[in-house]
Amino acid sequence: MHYYNQVFLRDGTPCTLRNPTAEDALALLNFLKITSGETDHLMRYPDEIQIRVEEERRFLQEMASKPNAVMIAAVLNGQIVGNAGLTPVAECDKCRHRASFGMSVLQDDWGRGIGTLLTKAILESAQEAGYRQIELEVLADNHRALALYEQFGFKIFGTNEHAFYFRNGTYRASHLMSLTI
């Protein structure tokens, strides 16, 4: 699914929202490793991102060809500073109306409106793809993300008390959220 839009951040800085291409594979992998190391709110540790650049290139090419999935990168001055994805929950008829949404933004760029812009872009793409329900999972103590998703109308429909198990032996809860569009 194709997406491209020139937008402005809260401070007036121009930002490009676009599909990452195969040429972005290395930059996107580096982005994922950085964001995974900046916060515990993401699913993986940086050392768990073992995808080779060629595998990422193929994945990005595959994503670009799907009519019901999209990946959107936020690009500032040629650098990926945010990334969001929308994928089907399942390909079967009974679940075809549901999509899964995930997002991350470089910590240095938190509070600039990138998450808001990416969420808007994902919801536009979801409507274009014909989805009726968008789902996500967010750590229960990620208050910034919760506030953002609630601003868009997402509602908590469940809590997984032991969603994340950390290497230090602790657990963290996550909220399951959905939005009907």
Helices and strands in order:
Elements: E1 4-8, E2 14-18, H1 25-38, H2 53-65, E3 70-76, E4 79-88, E5 98-105, H3 114-129, E6 133-139, H4 143-151, E7 155-165, E8 171-180
Parallel strand pairs: 5-6
Antiparallel strand pairs: 1-2, 2-3, 3-4, 4-5, 6-8, 7-8
List keywords for this structure.
globular, 29% helix, 8 strands, single chain, Aminopeptidase, eight-stranded mixed sheet, 4 helices, 181 residues, alpha+beta
Protein architecture, described:
The protein is an alpha+beta fold and 181 residues long. The protein has one domain (4-180): Gcn5-related N-acetyltransferase (GNAT) (Aminopeptidase, 3-Layer(aba) Sandwich), CATH 3.40.630.30. It is 29% helix and 35% strand. The chain is built from 4 helices and 8 strands, in the order ββααβββαβαββ. The protein has an 8-stranded mixed beta sheet with strand order 1-2-3-4-5-6-8-7, with helices on both faces. The longest helix has 16 residues, at 114-129. The protein is globular. The mean pLDDT is 97.
Strand order in the largest sheet: 1-2-3-4-5-6-8-7
CATH class: Alpha Beta
Question: Which strand-content bin applies to the residues?
Answer: 25-35%
Query: How many helical elements?
Result: 4
Outline:
The protein is of the alpha+beta class and 181 residues long. It has a single domain (4-180), classed as Aminopeptidase. The chain has helices at 25-38, 53-65, 114-129, 143-151; strands at 4-8, 14-18, 70-76, 79-88, 98-105, 133-139, 155-165, 171-180.
